[in-house]
Design goal:
303 residues, alpha/beta, TIM Barrel, seven-stranded parallel β-sheet, two-stranded antiparallel sheet, 14% strand
Length: 303
């Protein structure tokens, strides 16, 4: 049974009945290195998912291209049948090549197949949130998303999807989406050191649309910065907890979906919900990636 705990408060995207605890869990690290193959410790992976739900996580972010299939199969094994309070969000738009590559796959046929793969692996009749993942690698492009987004709308009309999100988009692509579908969530690269979407984030907040950063804590290799180290020391917390707390205080529509393959790290990550940063510390942290040339290592796996 999930505990009744504070996980950063609850956010309900406009036009939905979703109640998403703002500290969630991302499953990228449930699979092996580079999100490929089985995890190093299958039993620990199962325990992580079960512990996340027990601690009150109501929002799990996943994809069938993690593994491929591995993350979704672990989720199903760990907690199916799912608690009614749990929202599982998944992504489509990428396939994995045999060389572990990440291959763009946004044709109507590919997206339809990906939705059915997610339904099968998760043992669901409908997917609560499906993100359309576009762009190139970790970077965005400004290509039209009208055709792939229309394909997801058709799947929603068939009852296979309840809500649609967008991932790795530009402001122009978000604007294009508004005449095609109601968007409930956006998932872009964003964290203390990478904040090019500040304006988009604020716009989404005004519209009541959730923003779930990928690599919120820096990715597989976490953020490193003297400013972050000093802030963590001053409040008696870990750098990951401070990075999460900064996101939670940055905007009420941010959902933090930090990932881990360790139960101990999961518990530590969720403690960020109780960490309140002073205005002085936030001002210092805001210097990361702007006034300060942060020392941080780019993640090695794609979301």
């Amino acid at each position: 049974m999930a505990q009744s705990v504070n996980l950063g408060g609850v956010f309900t995207p406009t036009g939905t009945n979703l109640k998403l605890n703002r500290l969630g869990y991302g499953t990228l690290q449930l699979a092996g290195e580079m999100a490929w193959g089985p995890p190093r410790d299958h039993d620990e992976a199962i325990r992580v998912v079960r512990e996340a739900v027990r601690l009150g996580v109501s929002h799990i972010d996943t994809s069938d291209f993690y593994g491929p299939h591995i993350a979704n199969e672990i989720i199903r094994e760990a907690i199916h049948p799912y608690p009614k309070s749990l929202t599982i969000a998944t992504k489509v738009g990428i396939l994995r090549g045999p060389d572990k590559s990440w291959v763009k796959a946004v044709s109507a046929q590919q997206l339809t197949a990906a939705v059915h793969d997610n339904l099968k692996r998760l043992a669901l009749d409908a997917l609560e949130i499906v993100y359309l993942r576009v762009g190139e690698g970790r970077g965005t492009n400004d290509d039209s998303i009208a055709e792939p987004l229309a394909a997801l709308v058709k799947l929603r009309e068939q009852g296979l999807i309840r809500h649609i999100g967008l991932s790795n988009i530009t402001p122009r692509q978000f604007a294009e989406s508004q005449s095609i579908a109601d968007i409930v969530c956006v998932q872009n690269h964003y964290n203390l050191a990478y904040r090019k979407d500040d304006a988009l984030l604020d716009d989404l907040g005004r519209r009541g649309i959730a923003f779930a950063p990928f690599f919120p804590l820096g990715g597989v290799r976490p953020l490193r910065s003297p400013i972050l180290d000093e802030a963590a020391k001053s409040v008696g917390a870990t750098t990951r907890q401070v990075a999460s707390a900064w996101l939670l205080q940055r905007s009420p529509n941010i959902l933090v979906i930090g990932g881990t393959s360790s139960v101990d790290h999961l518990r530590d990550n969720l403690k960020a919900a109780n960490l309140k940063l002073t205005p002085e510390i936030i001002a210092q942290l805001n210097g990361i990636g702007t006034k300060e040339k942060s020392e941080w290592r780019a993640p090695v796996a794609k979301p």
